[in-house]
Design goal:
With 278 residues, the protein is an alpha+beta fold. The chain has 3 domains: 144 residues; 67 residues, no CATH class; 35 residues, no CATH class. It is built from 11 helices and 13 strands. A 4-stranded antiparallel sheet has the order 1-2-3-4. Strands 8-9-10 form a 3-stranded antiparallel sheet. Strands 5-6 form a two-stranded antiparallel ribbon. β8 and β9 form a beta hairpin. α1 crosses α8. The longest helix has 16 residues. The termini are far apart.
Length: 278
């Protein structure tokens, strides 16, 4: 279950970033999205999710512990921590409720699905170091193997690759030492299993039953990709919202786009109340 969000956009990373000096950065302070970030996501509809994540987090993380966050730091964050922070941004921007439309895999019927952010499973796995040692038990090549966990830079590097090639490239990037021999297929699978056990998990498996054909199935749900699709959909209204605020408040486009999303919507709600016929 997802823990309650800390006040003022502050949250604790489920993994944390271990620096070269041994410090672990785990407390993140976020600011809300503004119209500028919404507009950027809409203008980059074909950009890989990993790159969108880096952009939004680089803009919206105020600091990690006491360290200002930039794109270099954001790329060093573990994949699970990045997904967790995007989830926090989504909660701050659009709230706790998710409403999605899925298709039944059996009959292709359209299904409305709703759930809350608290239904998303988060398993913290605080990091104590940046590199892990593992002893291969392969009788033909048993030797110590060193690796690190996948991070944002790895996500970006493999974002456009086919699945099998992406796995191979990811392993090559994360393997620190292999004893001078290529890993066997069994060793590769074992190292991937170790990575899965060590990295923080942000997971949602929806248990669904089709109302049309009664087919029961589980469906994994990518909250990060869904948030980006929500932002693209909402951006269709952004120009109209800017128009209304500029027309009635006489603010510039830059001033309006610089507003936090919740503030912009609050002003629009006030305008709607004021202009509504009595």
């Amino acid at each position: 279950m997802l823990d309650a969000q800390l006040p003022d956009g502050v949250c604790t990373l489920p993994g944390g970033l271990v620096m070269e000096d041994g410090r672990r950065l785990a407390r993140a302070e976020l600011r809300q999205l503004t119209g500028y970030e919404e507009e950027w996501v809409a203008q980059h509809a074909d950009t890989a999710s990993a790159l969108l994540t880096t952009k939004l987090l680089s803009d919206c993380i105020v600091r990690l512990d006491e360290m200002p966050a930039d794109s270099n730091i954001v790329r060093q964050l573990l994949v699970g921590d990045r997904d967790f922070l995007i989830l926090q941004l989504r909660r701050m921007t659009l709230g706790e409720r998710f409403a999605a439309v899925l298709n039944c895999p059996a009959c292709n019927a359209v299904m409305d699905v709703e759930f809350l952010a608290q239904d998303i499973f988060v398993e913290p796995r605080p990091q104590s170091g940046a590199i892990y040692d593992w002893q291969s038990k392969d009788s033909t090549s048993g030797r110590p193997i060193r690796f690190r966990l996948p991070n944002g830079a790895d996500q970006e590097a493999i974002a456009e690759l086919p699945v099998e090639e992406a796995v191979q490239n990811l392993m090559a990037r994360c393997l620190i030492e292999d004893g001078g021999k290529p890993l066997t297929p069994d060793e590769c699978r074992a190292v991937i299993d170790q990575m899965d056990r060590l990295t923080p998990q942000i997971d949602l498996q929806l248990e669904l039953n089709c109302p049309e054909c009664q087919h029961s199935f589980n469906s994994p749900f990518d909250c990060t990709a869904f948030f980006f699709s929500e932002l693209r959909w909402q951006s269709r209204h952004l120009m109209r919202e800017v128009h209304y605020l500029a027309l009635y408040y006489h603010w510039s486009e830059a001033e309006i786009l610089n507003l936090r999303c919740d503030r912009r919507r609050a002003y629009l709600a006030l305008l709607n109340e004021t202009l509504r016929p009595t």
